[in-house]
Amino acid sequence: MTSAQPAAIHVLNGPNLNLLGEREPQIYGHETLADVETLCRAEAGSLPLVFRQTNNEHEMVDWVQAARRGQIGIVMNPAAFTYAGYPILDALKMVDCPVIEVHISNIHRREAEWRSKSIMTQVVTGIISGLGVAGYGLAVRDLARRWALKA
User: For site-directed labelling of 124, which of 95, 96, 110, 141 has its Cα 20 to 30 A away?
Assistant: First the structure.
């Protein structure tokens, strides 16, 4: 996207989140990705919102690059890209809007130590971890607030 296109909040979801509600509900809960989208749209109110999910790293890179200029912000749950998605990390370094990293589970309390180390955190504005899907709503609300303060 260029600054000539309307500014939006971009909610970008990584691998396996398409199976939210089915995959390990004891960790990720019973809400589906459609439920997350409904929550995000409600929080965004009248602000445009782009909601996407991919299992492909190159597609996530394309989406981040498309949102790199003149956008309200990015909410990203990188999922498994969190630990080794270096092309996504590099794309995030070029973004001029706030980026909030969201994780449904508390990645710092997960069973494997490698799950607690996000490479994305070094370049994002903030991180929300462990609040379930409510973390998405908080992230969208924060981006909307930041946008209103700029106006």
Answer: 110
Smallest Cα–Cα separation from 53: which of 81, 88, 89, 11?
11
Task: Give the per-residue pLDDT at 2.
Answer: 43
Q: Are 107 and 77 in contact (CB under 8 A)?
A: no
DSSP 88: H
**Domain range list for the chain:** 9-150
Write down the CATH superfamily of domain 9-150.
Answer: Dehydroquinase, class II (3.40.50.9100)
- Residues tagged active-site: 28, 103
| Amino acid at residue number 95 | V
Buried b (16+ CB within 10 A) or exposed e, 34-57: eebbebbeebbeebebbbebbbeb
Asked if residue 115 has pLDDT above 70, the reply is no
